[in-house]
Amino acid sequence: MFVSQLLPSAFIVILMIGLIIIENHMIKKHELHLKKIVMILVFLGSFIVFIGSVLLLLWIWDFDFQSYISSQFSNFVIFIEESVGKLLSTVMILFVAQLILRISKIALMKIGTKEGPLQRRKKTISRVFRSTTKYLVWTITILAILAVWGMNVVPALAGLGILGLVIGLGAQKFINDLISGFFIIFEQHFNVGDRIEVQGFKGDVIDIGLKTTKIRNWKGEVKILANGEINNLINYSKEASTAIVDFGIAYRENIQQVIDLLNTAFLTMKKDFPQIIEDPTVAGVMDLSNSSINMRVIAKTFNEQHYAVERGIRKFIKEVLDENNIEIPFPQIVVNTPKQ
User: Fold this and answer.
1) Among 94, 83, 91, 79, residue whose Cα is nearest residue 149
2) If residue 289 lies in a helix (H) or strand (E), which one and from where to where?
3) Which residues are CB-neighbours of 108 under 8 A, at least 6 positions away?
4) Distance CA 126, CA 109 (A)
5) Taking a C-beta distance cutoff of 8 angstroms, is the pair 113, 123 a contact?
6) Which of 50, 57, 67, 249 is in the most buried spot, having the most CB atoms within 10 Å?
7) Residue 209 contacts residue 182 (beta carbons within 8 Å)
8) Which residue from 290, 307, 289 is spatially nearest to 299, judged by alpha carbons?
9) Phi first, then psi: what are they for 80, rounded to 5°?
10) d(CA 58, CA 56)
């Protein structure tokens, strides 16, 4: 009797292992060419064959499957009847947790996207609070569910405290990053959207967390810095930027005439460059060089918007000076050849 049961069982098991090996080999070989629906049908067919093989093995070994299902169903019904209150409480706790998370997410997203003078600051704080709220709500939810099902959560809380102490002693750098992140956020060293320079890397802040900060430069490269490593920081977004352009005129030109001419012409420049806060003005003579009188033009712009303004000012100066026949000198070499 035992042999008559063992041989078919071994055959079924070997057949199943062979089918699994063949299936994995075929799928890996043709994975890129198979459609998703075909792969789903293959997996579904394998599952049906597996269930059928298990049922066949149980039948070979005279397993009373019907009695087993009936007993398990009875036990399940009893469990449900005894635990209906706990199940309802668990569902309610999960529902309330999800509701709190959704409300906080909507509220914080609305705050973060609301336009205003402190929009970057609000966006930064909202992201940090969303992350903190998520972890806090889920921690309380898990502890509440454990308490509903009869577990004593007081030792769990004590264990979390001891675990936190152990982690704190062994992860001083991690704690340092968290503390640095806290002060960066609440002392407003920089916000999401600010342009900063750290360790020679200049770019826009795209994300701030309590642990790390992400910066993306103009080439699209993203640098992730631990907050504890952010030293010698330059924030270019705190104040307005200044566009500075130097140019030279010939010594024979009238300096005051050039200054008055450019200052008048600069009044029309703001309509083409809305990023200008204060109209460009000639600051005066900066240097008396060998071949030119060097002068400087300055203009206030929105932070980090001065690059395009500087290019525009250079073009504007060249056009105005050319229109008024004012010479812009350049180095020249005069070679005198002796007469033959």
Assistant:
1) 83
2) none
3) 126, 127, 129, 130, 133
4) 7
5) yes
6) 249
7) no
8) 307
9) -65, -45
10) 5
The pLDDT-based confidence of 246 (bands split at 50, 70, 90) is very high
Q: Is the CATH code 3.30.70.100 the one for domain 241-323?
A: yes
Tell me, rounded to whole angstroms, the distance of Cα 327 from its chain centroid: 52
Q: ∠ at Cα 320 (316, 326), nearest 5°?
A: 130
Which pair of structure tokens corresponds to residue 179?
């503390």
Continuous H helices in the chain: 2-30, 36-60, 65-113, 119-148, 153-170, 172-186, 255-265, 306-323
Q: In sequence order, which residues have a C-beta less than 8 Å from that of residue 119 and are 6 or more positions away?
A: 193
Phi, psi of 297 (to 5 degrees): -115, 135
Cα dist from 181 to 128, 175, 186, 187, 190, whole Å: 10, 10, 9, 10, 11
> CATH top-level class for 191-235?
mainly beta
Highest mean pLDDT among 66-70, 74-78, 302-306: 302-306
Token duo for residue 109:
């997203």
Name residue, tokens 């999800």.
98
- Whether 223 and 207 have beta carbons less than 8 Å apart is answered as no
The edge-to-edge listing of strands for the beta sheet with 195-198 is 222-226, 212-216, 201-208, 195-198, 234-235
Residue 133: Cβ within 10 Å count: 17
**pLDDT band, residue 58 (cuts 50/70/90):** confident
Residue showing tokens 């009373």: 64
The full set of domain ranges for the chain reads: 2-63, 88-170, 191-235, 241-323
The answer to whether the 191-235 and 241-323 domains have the same CATH topology is no
CA separation for the pair 207, 219 (Å, rounded): 17
Q: Assess contact for 205 and 196: CB atoms under 8 A.
A: yes
Determine the distance from the C-alpha atom of residue 61 to the mean position of all C-alpha atoms in its chain, rounded to a whole number: 58
